[in-house]
Design goal:
2 copies of one chain form a homodimer. Chain A contains 14 helices and 13 strands. The first copy, chain A, is α/β, with parallel strands linked by helices and 411 residues long. Chain A folds into 2 domains: 231 residues, Rossmann fold; 142 residues, Rossmann fold (3-Layer(aba) Sandwich), CATH 3.40.50.460. In chain A, the strands form 3 sheets. A 7-stranded mixed sheet of chain A has the order 3-2-1-4-5-10-11, with helices on both faces. A 4-stranded parallel sheet of chain A has the order 7-8-6-9, sandwiched between helices. The two termini of chain A are 28 Å apart. At the A-B interface, helix 7, strand 9, helix 11, strand 12 and strand 13 of A face helix 7, strand 9, helix 11, strand 12 and strand 13 of B. Chains A, B: It is found in: Cytoplasm.
Chain lengths: 411, 411
């Protein structure tokens, strides 16, 4: 009988704890696993001897695992820490494997994005090269949906549902006054525009907005943008623009830094985000009412409007990782493979970690609409099934009930 | 048999259409009322001859009235238009009453805030002074909760639930990294701090944030604020500050304009809101990670997390207005009277419109905590029951189903 260890890394999503809940549930039930450990603040928790016994926290409480499944943020904390190449400096690897061996840990699960998969890659390589008995499995998460080797990432569907729902509600909010307006909504994603593209889902039979969608994959022209606005204003009073925080001009300069763009750019890079920058440009150029809205961290933490599909997938991806690990599968990331789009079906598989680590999957250009400022029907069809279903959240006195590590463990 | 007219005015709330749904339902069922008209863009719809027949839209569709009940924004559009004093200029009054008489309208319902109640006051006065057969009833709404004569306003509970839920989720989002941080959340309310105070509800048995709450009712000192942060940082890593957009210094200057405040204020009034201004001050003074988040229009439009209590009260207040009007009651606003706090019970009544129009109800100083930077237990107990219950929203393909006037009526 061996033990297992779980850690979380990178930025949060609404459902990264659903994956954690999946790993814990599956590990506790697995006859090959004795104790389930959690590392506080990612890989740094091992280096800092900061491991907690999750079996003792959760074994007798299915109830807590259910609440954990619908708790946003990262129950075990996070880190953004990159291991050095073992060939250059072996010190930390020796420390890590000493602790793992001391704790009889044979299975290590790391829930994270493309940077975190670098840790999975390095640890699995080191184990192999040094005949260490450790299987290392990566479990994908990121609202950015920018991981290779998987149809999509857990966390994306919930962020997409928040973006689409909020864009729909903002669109309703803007039509009430009988004056022209432009509302610019800034959405997360420095390089990959998947989440910004999800704004297109807000177009329903009762709502035609957003009217323009700008992704970081294609160069952004302020000139074209203003022209498009003027064109749309001829037939529509209230315009909604969804814009990625990471849009760049043709020379790859961020619009938010806006130094080389146009005369009417104020260049207050430190104060303004992309939305604020565009707000001032539009306000000066068109003179109509302009508002910018930054969705901010709500995109990755609004569990109350998470996608049930996403929660369930995140949980299953975590559970399946345990199954793979005890079979001796190592140096892989668990993946979701879409087997049909309508009705949406999928299977869970795994992929070589080399194909994922440190890489960024952008939207294929063919999925971006030919006229810059929109996305293709294909892209909308790809995202649509991922936002289905409402979360089964417990409420108490009007607020969602979430699980907090400090409440469970006296650190 | 007479007809009735309904209009909406001022800023939107998540539940102002629930009140509209209540007026329409009750009017359609009332034997004294023949046709229910709606005025597009508030009182201006009358002046512009822009009335629509709501009976023909809704009479055969209970279903649509149910969807309207959970649709955010303002179905009939809005305006911010103040009638002149009739003693100074009677022209518009004559126009309005001509149209009302022509359409055989005997009952007029105006859903709005303190400015809109000015319209109710003036029209009811004019009717009385000129022997016009019109009863005018005001129906309260505002996320600001700043109307006199009512325990609270429909719209406030839902905005409060959004603020509390979001603060809870932001608080979870901030604790994951092992570094100190300050997160500043800017909440709507230029003069009244009721909505900012609702941030205190995010404190649950698993969450102690927000740590500081600043209301516009008491002067804000940047010096005291920075001292409080330093004090809290001694025992807590991640600090959450809830701040009203309307906080002012001791000379009543808005902190967001920040001209006379401190050396480390950048004074970018046009670019920055209150949160951004404080972000830069804290960043320069404390040097730790600082983020500001503006909740923006989501506070008034996020129907997906509205309070069921609020939706139901908004509906009933609308329905009751019809009952009062056909009894000949005029120049009044419908009110909510709390009869018990725990368990929460209330009755519906009405109040003289003079007591409400153009006035602003601020938080009583005794309800603000003695140490500036927090609210009292009494204030929390007052707000708590208003956020209970989740809305029964219909979902389609992962998104809430809302009702749009352009879809129902070919304008």
């Amino acid at each position: 009988m061996s033990n297992c260890l779980i850690a979380q890394s990178g930025g949060p999503t609404s459902v990264i704890n659903a994956s954690l809940s999946g790993v814990i549930s599956s590990s506790i039930e697995n006859p090959n696993i004795h104790t389930v450990y959690g590392s506080i603040n990612g890989i740094q928790g091992i280096l800092n001897h900061n491991l907690i016994n999750l079996t003792s926290v959760f074994a007798d409480s299915k109830d807590k695992l259910e609440i954990l499944k619908t708790t946003p943020s990262m129950f075990l904390g996070s880190c953004r820490y990159k291991l050095p190449e073992a060939s250059e400096d072996e010190t930390e690897y020796k420390l890590i494997f000493d602790i793992l061996e001391h704790k009889k840990i044979k299975y290590f699960f790391y829930i994270g994005g493309n940077d975190s998969m670098d840790t999975v890659l390095k640890l699995s390589k080191y184990a192999k090269n040094n005949n260490k008995d450790l299987t290392v499995i990566g479990i994908p998460k990121t609202i950015d949906n920018d991981l290779f080797g998987t149809d999509h990432t857990p966390g994306f569907g919930s962020a997409a549902k928040f973006v689409a729902t909020t864009l729909l509600e903002i669109s309703y909010d803007t039509y009430i006054y009988d004056i022209p307006s432009v509302t610019i909504v800034e959405i997360m994603g420095r390089n990959a525009g998947w989440l910004t593209a999800a704004a297109a889902l807000a177009r329903t039979e009762h709502n035609s907005s957003p009217d323009l969608i700008y992704l970081p994959e294609v160069p952004f022209s302020i000139y074209d943008f203003l022209n498009s606005l003027k064109q749309i204003q001829k037939t529509k009073k209230n315009i909604i623009v969804a814009v990625s925080e990471g849009i760049k001009d043709k020379d790859r300069n961020y619009i938010s830094s806006c130094e080389n763009s146009l005369d009417d750019c104020f260049g207050h890079a430190k104060l303004s985000g992309t939305g604020k920058t565009l707000e001032h440009i539009v306000s000066r150029s068109l003179g109509c009412k302009v508002r910018s809205i930054e969705l901010n961290v709500l995109q990755r933490s609004a569990m109350h409007i998470a996608s049930l599909q996403d929660i369930n997938e995140a949980f299953l991806v975590g559970a399946k990782a345990v199954e793979y690990a005890v079979k001796g599968i190592t140096g892989k990331m668990v993946t979701l493979i879409r087997t049909n789009n309508e009705p949406y079906t999928y299977i869970i598989d795994y992929v070589d970690i080399e194909k994922v680590a440190n890489k960024e999957k952008l939207i294929p250009i063919k999925w971006i609409a030919e006229n810059n400022g929109d996305v293709s029907e294909q892209l909308i069809e790809y995202i649509s099934p991922l936002i289905y279903g409402e979360p089964n959240i417990r409420y108490k006195q009007g607020l969602p009930v979430y699980l907090d590590i400090n409440h469970l463990i006296n650190k």
